[in-house]
Amino acid sequence: MNASQEIGKWKRCYTTDFDFDITSSFEFHVNLSAKGYRSLIFSGDHDLVVPFLSTQAWIRALNYSIFDDWRPWLVNGQVAGFTRTYSNQMTFATVKGGGHTAAEYKPDECLAMFSRWLSNAPL
Fold first, then answer.
1. How many Cβ atoms from other residues are within 10 Å of residue 11's Cβ?
2. SS3 for 26?
3. Its Gene Ontology molecular function terms (predicted)?
């Protein structure tokens, strides 16, 4: 943009607010999982908004077989949380000491978790 161009007034690029709410991601997850996409689901174990037990209940409702049962995952030799993997390429992990925005509370641990997952390495 050059100095002679004027910046217009900012406005939304859509004309209406959201027309509907998505009350559940269940169907979307089942659909994407059936297509073979990997997924990483994680919860801070101090999350009071969506407790990890609620996330576990959501996962149980998917009825996927457990591939690798509960075990700790480590960062710098310390337990960073616990993880379980499922036969549909889904990984669930808790982040020890993490709140609702786990990466805000435990950035080193979440970076390690995400990096390992992206690399297809075990947590």
1. 7
2. helix
3. acyltransferase activity, transferring groups other than amino-acyl groups; serine-type carboxypeptidase activity
Is 112 among the domain residues?
yes
The number of distinct structural domains making up the chain is 1
Does 23 map to a domain?
Answer: no
User: Is the pTM higher than 0.70?
Assistant: yes
Q: Which of 80, 82, 115, 96 is nearest to 44 (CA)?
A: 96
| Residue span of the structural domain in which 57 resides | 39-118
* DSSP code string of 37-104: --EEEEEETT-SSS-HHHHHHHHHHHTPPEEEEEEEEEETTEEEEEEEEETTSEEEEEETT--SSHHH
CB 42 within 8 A of CB 92: yes
**First-to-final CA distance of the chain:** 47
How many Å separate Cα 96 from the centre of its chain?
15
Amino acid making up residue 33? S
Residue type, 79: V
Per-residue pLDDT tens over the stretch 68-117: 999 999 999 999 999 999 988 999 999 999 999 999 999 999 999 999 99
